[in-house]
């Protein structure tokens, strides 16, 4: 019997080292490829703003347009559809009479819910989940997921000596497009309209991802990473791979393979080790998210403790706009909203301020990051926020950064604060006191 496949693209928008797509290619005679842009990502609801801001949408749009072109070169087609995966996937399965459905394993709670729902609606189909977003396959981890170490250090010690999966060859063949046996309404998204956002150093898509990989490793930068990685600014001070990793334009296995080549051909030192160390943080948060599911978004976190916290709309707005009394925090927040990127140090500083000085429920900070970060990744974002807020994968209580000390250490001459005008509009946190009297 001829087999027909449906491939659901999510955060694996590439042809190089895509084991999930490879599995589909090896298993079916014809294929339909789809990407679903969830409506909640781009349309405001009565309760919330869209979860994806315009700069992230722009990056995604560039990635999808390129993937569409690359698939076309191999005789395939990518349907980019706006709506809900839970209703679109079952309709597509029926319309092409799919025998098999494929996807990369995803840490997102909604994505997994929609996948499970589709399975229940298409009981005659075979469903395949393949690891494309992580260094290791689930079944290659040296422990069961339920036994995942609760902290990064314990995780690292157990996994560091294991070898991650090697990348596979880029695909040069795809099965032809599946025939539609019945009509289906696909709310196709027009990706071609331009988006009005400032020009960015980050360009979505596999070509730009691989160009950054080559550019970073063909200079001396990896040999000095550890000394400069904490800098607040500077393109070359960290790898800048995160937006491409988050969208899957870049495979983390391909990245590690390039790192190993650099270590063989150029040098193997503390800095090259440290790049791998950071990628293990990413790996840890991925499996941590898989393990904890919906707990990743709960105020008590995975530790199940209730932080003393509230929501102060005025403080929240001032944090977002960069109008708090803390110039370093303001500079970071302005960089974030202008570029969609912030250094790891900057993220830690503004998150600590949010939780400690502002006393706001950490989930609002995480939700804002989700909206604006180009490199938004469900596992890394919510995992790091929980960690900072003291409800996550950390034996310590919440982390509190001394803002003056951070400024003195990481911006001693004030150049970063001046660059982002962090000293402008330093406003008190509250304009009224607890009894609503003007302060
Ligand atoms: C509150 C907060 C929220 C964050 N949200 C995200 C997010 O949504 N998406 C995201 O990719 N990273 C997130 N990070 C982690 C980190 O800040 C970024 O990965 C990093 O700044 C990206 O820049 P880079 O690629 O130059 O990193 P590099 O310093 O060059 O690190 C190399 C890679 O290692 C990984 N990495 C480094 N640090 C971490 C970390 N702490 N956690 C997980 N992975 C890490 C990333 O994939 C990164 O690309 C967050 C950190 C904090 C404190």
Q: How would you characterize this protein structure?
A:
With 439 residues, the protein is α/β, with parallel strands linked by helices. The protein has three domains: 4-133, Rossmann fold (3-Layer(aba) Sandwich), CATH 3.40.50.620; 207-292, Alpha Horseshoe (Serine Threonine Protein Phosphatase 5, Tetratricopeptide repeat); 313-419, DNA Cyclobutane Dipyrimidine Photolyase, subunit A, domain 3. 46% of the residues lie in helices and 7% in strands. It contains 18 helices and five strands. The chain has a five-stranded parallel β-sheet, with helices on both faces. The longest helix is centred in the middle third of the chain and has 23 residues, at 270-292. The N and C termini lie far apart (76 Å). Bound molecules: flavin-adenine dinucleotide (FAD). Flavin-adenine dinucleotide is lined by residues 229, 238-242, 245-246, 278-279, 281-282, 285, 343-344, 347-348, 351, 369, 373, 375-377, 380-381, 384-385, 388.
SSE layout:
Elements: E1 4-9, H1 19-27, E2 30-38, H2 39-42, H3 54-73, E3 78-83, H4 85-96, E4 100-104, H5 109-121, E5 126-130, H6 152-159, H7 206-218, H8 221-228, H9 242-247, H10 252-265, H11 270-292, H12 313-321, H13 327-339, H14 344-355, H15 362-372, H16 378-389, H17 403-410, H18 415-419
Parallel strand pairs: 1-2, 1-4, 2-3, 4-5
Helix pairs in contact: 4-5, 7-10, 8-11, 10-11, 11-16, 13-14, 15-16
Flavin-adenine dinucleotide (FAD) is lined by residues 229, 238-242, 245-246, 278-279, 281-282, 285, 343-344, 347-348, 351, 369, 373, 375-377, 380-381, 384-385, 388.
